[in-house]
Amino acid sequence: MLRRLARIGFGPGKGPSGPLTRATRRVALLIGLGLAFLVVTTIYEAVATANERARFPPPGRLVDVGGYRLHLRCDGRGSPTVVLESGGGMTSNEWELVQPEIAKFTRVCSYERRGLGWSESGPPGDPVEVLHRLLTTAAVSGPYAIVGHSYGSGLALRFAYRFPNEVQGMVLAAASYPDEEVQRIAADRSEQDERYSQIYAWTTRTGLLRITPERYLPEILRVYFGLLRRYLPPKTAECEIAFLHQTRHVQAFHTERGWPTPKEGMEEVAACKRGFGDMPLVVLSEKWVYSPDPGEQETAEARREEERQRRLAGMSSRGRKLDLESGHLIPLESPAAVVDAVRGVVLTSRSGR
Asked: How far apart are CA 348 and CA 38, in angstroms?
């Protein structure tokens, strides 16, 4: 057998030749170079992340909540304690323009959910239950006034629903009543959003996002980075943008997009249907029409969202809705409106009226 192979050119040190073999070798070489490149960029991602972590130390403290630690930042004195619940994928940096002002009239705490910002990664779990455990472990006693932004508004609703005796007021910014249309739209977008989220997480993990010049990033990231730089202090914006390049943060954001689970979504609907009695409640509504000459579809969508905002405010006999000339990032774009809303809720809670 060996002699036969040798006669046709497969002896020791020999191999097949020809265009196909050369093409195969080129492909193998390109694959090898590509893998080597990914190894280098992945190492670069790890080193850059370590440098950023050293450059931006946590402004608060890390609290063990059962095998992993969450970052908690509290300022001020007074009751009720205001708890700030950030939007999806955002950190306590979101409240940079809000928290110091609230601290002037009561105690206020912000934090990051597991894996986000300065918080450590942890096992999957109900974020509402984890927040309650964090506050209990950190000896941040109630009563509370919960402030939620966007995704965080849903968590605020569920927290107030699950712990009604501990919550005395609520502010919801850029929230939406979870009616059937909102749930359907969210379901329709989930598959496309999931693909984008997976790509974002993969390019972050391999360091490709970090080495890509910002002008070549997807428009949604470029616009978001621009808004952070526009509204936040330079160092805070730089810190938040750094997190959005880090594997742990982006992976946590990717995982978080799978929440709420159907069961938890039902809890949010149940909270809205049951209502909150006479709890002080303020709904801060973003601007819904941006076109100078809006068409019929945009106008109709704005009307439907206006009705959802009214339904949110109607969950309490003392609920009120404030329309803002603001985009979705209300804590950044209209921080004074958030502070005023919180002040009103806190003072009403204190007076017992």
From this structure: 56
